[in-house]
Q: What sequence folds into this?
């Protein structure tokens, strides 16, 4: 049995990771922003840069997933600041807490995103590629840099650069399923933009693979082996759900509805998981149809 701490354990990925670890007999320590109400909870306050370090004693790994939802609100300047600070301040607090321990965890896995690469168009990229441009690319760079204290303390640190997680309940994909079930699904913009997706099952397995693989550190892309275009996603959703997917949302309409965030929705992120593949990770659902079926429990 291992003791593993998780931030963001109430979210889509964090809750699934906690269930997976607990099912295998591991002890999960959940970092919470309120007063702990259960034996497995530990207090932290990212805005105040506070972590109850005593609660992390004995943890072999820390998985840091907390951060404000990118698509939860329109991007006002205030909300953009919240997106950035929730990631950078929280990550710095966790990294500094880990670095201060006499016996720190062996590994810190800190969330990041494929937005790090910016809009890649038709060009495929992997962990060897440089950062791109744009608000979320800048946020991802600052997010990853905030782990510095842990790295300098000798803790193996990995940045889990996540793509679009295919899940039924939660996340961006969770909002798509009701639309397609109602026959209102369709491509976004011209549909030629690449979506780097990953099944929730594979995402959790990949996080655990990073924890268990001593050679994995630095950026690790958590995406399926071959990204697909939005047109291909649209066709796959129609096939699996057996519903028409004839609608299209033009770019200008998306920009009017979503504001600045529309640029990332319409952006192309053709990201490949070079390090996962090289380290021997096996995807259970490498293709988009299989990832959608897995999300639906089929």
A:
């Amino acid at each position: 049995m291992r003791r593993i701490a998780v931030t963001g354990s109430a979210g889509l990925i964090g809750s699934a990771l906690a269930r997976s670890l607990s099912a295998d007999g591991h002890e999960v320590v959940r970092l919470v922003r309120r007063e702990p109400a259960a034996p497995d909870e530990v207090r932290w306050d990212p805005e105040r840069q506070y972590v109850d370090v005593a609660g992390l004693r004995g943890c072999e790994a820390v998985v840091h997933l907390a951060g404000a939802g990118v698509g939860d609100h329109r991007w006002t300047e205030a909300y953009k600041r919240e997106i950035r600070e929730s990631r950078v301040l929280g990550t710095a607090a966790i990294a500094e807490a880990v670095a201060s321990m006499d016996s720190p965890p062996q590994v810190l896995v800190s969330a990041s995103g494929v937005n790090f690469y910016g809009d890649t168009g038709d060009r495929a990229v992997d962990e060897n590629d440089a950062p791109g441009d744009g608000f979320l690319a800048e946020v991802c760079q600052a997010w990853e840099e905030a782990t510095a204290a842990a790295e300098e303390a000798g803790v193996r640190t990995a940045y889990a650069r996540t793509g679009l997680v295919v899940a039924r309940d939660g996340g961006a994909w969770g909002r798509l399923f009701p639309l397609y079930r109602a026959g209102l699904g369709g491509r976004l913009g011209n549909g030629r933009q690449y979506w780097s997706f990953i099944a929730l099952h594979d995402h959790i397995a990949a996080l655990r693979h990073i924890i268990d693989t001593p050679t994995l550190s630095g950026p690790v892309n958590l995406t399926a082996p071959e990204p697909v275009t939005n047109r291909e996603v649209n066709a796959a959703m129609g096939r699996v759900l057996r519903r028409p997917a004839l609608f299209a949302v033009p770019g200008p309409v998306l920009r009017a509805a979503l504001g600045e965030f529309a640029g990332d929705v319409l952006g192309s992120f053709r990201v490949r998981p070079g390090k996962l593949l090289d380290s021997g990770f096996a995807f259970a659902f490498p293709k988009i149809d299989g990832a959608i079926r897995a999300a639906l429990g089929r």
